[in-house]
Design a protein that fits this description.
Layout: E1 10-20, E2 28-35, E3 39-44, E4 53-58, H1 65-69, E5 74-82, E6 91-98, H2 101-104
Antiparallel strand pairs: 1-2, 1-4, 2-3, 3-6, 4-5, 5-6
């Protein structure tokens, strides 16, 4: 299968919390499995709906500026599926970073 990605993926296991904006707005534990300039793949224990907007909050201070910048953006869920190797009900979630939408949502962050 041909890789059509514009940006390379960077693998990591960064602990974070994901905050769905279309639900109760409560943060849920997750971790970032990989990221790029335009997206993130998360592992979490809740299913997220396609098109749902989320905010990612890092638990620890990352060394990478690109990863640090993820906290300043809103993401849109592109896909969500049950983790095939998980017996504990974990989900893999693909999130596209939505540039500039954070400010429109009233979260006070400037667009890229």
């Amino acid at each position: 299968m041909q890789n059509k990605r514009k940006w390379p993926r960077i693998a990591c296991l960064e602990r974070c919390n994901v905050q769905p904006t279309d639900r109760d707005n409560q943060m849920r534990p997750a971790r970032i499995l990989n990221y790029s300039a335009t997206g993130v793949m998360l592992e979490t224990d809740i299913a997220l709906a396609v098109e749902e907007l989320v905010k990612i909050h890092l638990v620890d201070e990352p060394d990478d500026d690109l990863l640090r910048g993820i906290e300043k953006r809103v993401g849109k869920v592109c896909w969500c599926s049950m983790h095939a190797d998980s017996f504990s009900g974990m989900f893999l979630v693909g999130i596209e970073i939505v540039r500039g939408l954070s400010e429109d949502m009233g979260w006070g962050f400037a667009p890229l």
